[in-house]
Amino acid sequence: MECAGVGLHSGAPVCLRILPASAGSGIIFRRVDLDGFELEATSRNVARVSYATSLMKKGVLISTTEHLLSAFMGMGIDNAIVELDNLELPILDGSAQPFVDLIRGAGIRKQRRPRTYLRIRRELEVREGNKFIGIYPADGYSVEYSINFPHPLIGKEIFTLDLSQGNYLTEIAPARTFGFLHEADAMRKQGLIRGASTENAVVLTAEGVLNPPLRFADEFVRHKVLDLIGDLALLGKQIVGNVVADRAGHAMHTALVSRLLRDHTLWEETTMEDSVPPAIPSMQLAQRV
Ligand SMILES: [Zn+2]
Q: Helix H segments across 34-142?
């Protein structure tokens, strides 16, 4: 299954195709325009992180990976090959919904091999000014996000998602990325949001939204949950733990991932066969796409 679009930041046209991969291979990006160069979606390949999460290996870049990785995690897909012919994933409608539809179209099937989980044993907290992210031991996988923007439609929003309830698809996947109109010119001068439009982002004016309607009254915080789940996919395993974030962003999400992976006393790998049932069934793309 494939789709075409433009990159949010580069504005570059790109075609993307999702293919099945064998159990244990994880999510692998493949640059078909660079002789099929492969980049694994793991923490050690994380590069520049500011307004989006980018991966780099041997100088080859794959940018804005978070929405597709979020869709994979939310759907329980552990293994897939993602082919693209340019440096940035397509932004499509700004949410994970088109990726969910694409993955569904490709077909998914249950994996025979038991999945290994990363179970949090001790808490880890990262603070930076008034930004915060922490991860704690828990039975399933849940996230809580708080944001606070001085805007009449946002203000303080908190959203909690228990991924074991299977509500990612209805509650999170459709939430779109957003930006403030008054910041757009400065961002474009920095080489950002060259592909942004009212078709792929909620654009906030001083008083409201340039392109209504919103998909949820609290679509903004839901999109932050979407981004967080996508960035945490760089752990390379489904998490058994509770994540709490307050005004964090891609840089803090990925900092949590790399600090967690560096300290093996914070977590253990488990197949959970003799404990609680898996939060999300382990799925892979069907072999015939
Ligand atoms: Zn996003």
A: 66-75, 97-106
